[in-house]
Design a protein that fits this description.
- It is a single chain.
- The chain has 188 residues and is of the alpha+beta class.
- The chain folds into two domains: 31 residues; 129 residues, Acid Proteases (Cathepsin D, subunit A, domain 1, Beta Barrel).
- It contains two helices and ten strands; from the N terminus they run H-E-E-E-E-E-E-E-E-E-H-E.
- The chain has a six-stranded mixed barrel with strand order 1-2-9-3-8-7.
- A hairpin with a 2-residue loop joins strand 4 and strand 5.
- It is globular.
Length: 188
């Protein structure tokens, strides 16, 4: 029994020291958490201008955001490459969305076969603020959440608590212009 208590105390002490070390490391590296909001691993967003409320997984392991899309069709408009797709939001009638293609991204799949996807810049609301993010389009029917927000979007906006969900509200201000995002990195 004495040995178990000693091991528990040692483990607790090591855990506290590691936590303090992580905190000190963040201070040394100049990590500024101000301006970021604590969010859960799942939050609700409002896709604009359609006004659709949907669940989004906040995934720090993914680089690019992704959005569920059916019937993806590329076309040309005024000399630019565009995409048209259907977004089915929870079994209701599908909404058709059109947007210019910003870029293409190569996604490494667990199956070993890489995939190329069109990426579009779409506005949405999260935590009472309007944002833009680049979303790669993919059929997410087999996945739990229709949207995923990756590191490119999250890095200046959120600190993610992997044990929490729905820490923010998806409301969208009607008069505030969309926040400008540094979400347009050139690298996939």
């Amino acid at each position: 029994m004495l040995r178990v208590r000693s091991l528990l105390r040692t483990g607790l002490l090591v855990g506290l020291l590691l936590a303090a070390g992580v905190s000190l490391a963040a201070d040394r590296e100049g990590v500024d958490l101000s301006g970021r909001t604590l969010m859960g691993y799942v939050e609700k967003i409002v896709l604009l201008p359609e006004g659709l409320t949907l669940k989004a997984r906040l995934d720090t392991g993914a680089n690019t955001a992704s959005l569920h899309a059916d019937n993806i069709e590329e076309f040309e408009r005024d000399g630019e490459h565009w995409v048209r797709f259907d977004f089915d939001h929870g079994g209701r009638d599908a909404v058709q969305i059109e947007a210019p293609i910003e870029r293409r991204v190569r996604i490494a799949r667990h199956s070993g076969k890489d995939q190329r996807r069109a990426v579009v810049n779409l506005p949405f609301c999260l935590n009472g603020q309007r944002h833009h993010a680049q979303f790669s389009l993919i059929d997410r029917d087999e996945l739990t959440y229709p949207a995923l927000l990756g590191r490119r979007f999250l890095r200046d906006v959120a600190v993610v608590d992997p044990a929490a969900r729905y820490l923010t509200q998806p409301e969208c201000p009607s008069t505030e212009p969309p926040a400008e995002r540094a979400d347009e990195d050139a690298a996939p």
